[in-house]
Design goal:
The protein is built from eight helices and ten strands. It has about 240 residues and is α/β, with parallel strands linked by helices. The protein starts with a strand and ends in a 7-residue tail after the last helix. The structure holds fructose -6-phosphate.
């Protein structure tokens, strides 16, 4: 794992966007794995700004999002499909039919998980996966205890994840308790991974990732098994850590 330490959220977002833009320019048909949540919002803003100013094109790019809440359709403001449209897709020249988010509003979730996993495979896999990290070490919505062999599956969200995500909803009761997520194995199949970590509340998780054991009780620890992971972390998340990569 390679770690790039940056000053703050603004610099992390700029660096991450530069990283992604460089990959898109070298491979205009790149398959990008995308995340939602607070962490990548600044990165997406930078991608939009660059697209408007410099014309980086996403016409041939295909995207796969990590996860979606169960029970929310794409036109629900709290769904991750809606988030991605608002935060990125509506502002760049990407072909919407090439943007993929698991469906949270269908009845047969088992079939949806298989369809999603299959779709990624049919596209030849993800070239670059963007990840955030939960303070409990989750990646995607793979909560502690998830098997490292898991493919796309349905999960019960941990209470800490529900609490953390309540900030995007009017009331905590509105936060769905289930989600569909790419599994740990699905994530690990990506050719390259870019993990973004910002803020003091992620410090402990980053410490565990860098210094702890590889263990299913801390899902992100599996990233140590991947041959090509870059972490961009800001000072608040790294502060005082002895970084061994
Ligand atoms: C989002 C996702 C989650 C988030 C994580 C951190 O698609 O898969 O793993 O990356 O919960 O969320 P934030 O960035 O809001 O701290």
């Amino acid at each position: 794992m390679k770690i790039i330490e940056v000053k703050d959220y603004t610099e992390m977002s700029r660096k991450a966007a530069e990283y992604i833009i460089d990959k898109v320019c070298h491979n205009p048909k790149i398959k990008l794995g995308l995340a939602t949540g607070g962490t990548p919002i600044g990165t997406y803003k930078n991608l939009i700004e660059d697209h408007k100013k410099k014309g980086t094109s996403y016409q041939d790019v295909t995207t796969f999002n990590l996860d979606e809440y169960v029970g929310l359709s794409g036109d629900n403001k709290n769904s991750y499909r809606y988030f991605m449209d608002e935060q990125l897709f509506n502002h760049i020249d990407i072909n919407k039919s090439k943007t993929n988010v698991p469906r949270g509003d269908i009845i047969n979730f088992e079939a949806e998980c298989l369809r999603y996993e299959d779709l990624i495979e049919k596209h030849g896999g993800i070239d670059l996966q963007i990840l955030g990290i939960g303070s409990n070490g989750h990646i995607g919505f793979n909560e502690p205890g998830t098997s490292f062999n898991s493919n796309t599956h349905m999960v019960e969200l941990a209470q800490s994840t529900i609490n953390a995500n309540a900030r995007f909803f009017n009331r905590i009761e509105e936060v769905p308790t289930k989600a569909i997520t790419m599994g740990i194995s699905s994530i690990l199949k990506s050719k390259e991974i870019l993990l973004l970590v910002s803020g003091e509340n992620k410090k402990e998780a980053l410490f565990k990732l860098l210094n702890g054991e590889i263990n299913e009780s801390f899902p992100a620890s599996v990233l140590k098994k991947h041959p090509c992971v870059t972490i961009i972390a800001d000072k608040a998340a790294v502060a005082g850590l002895k970084v061994h990569c």
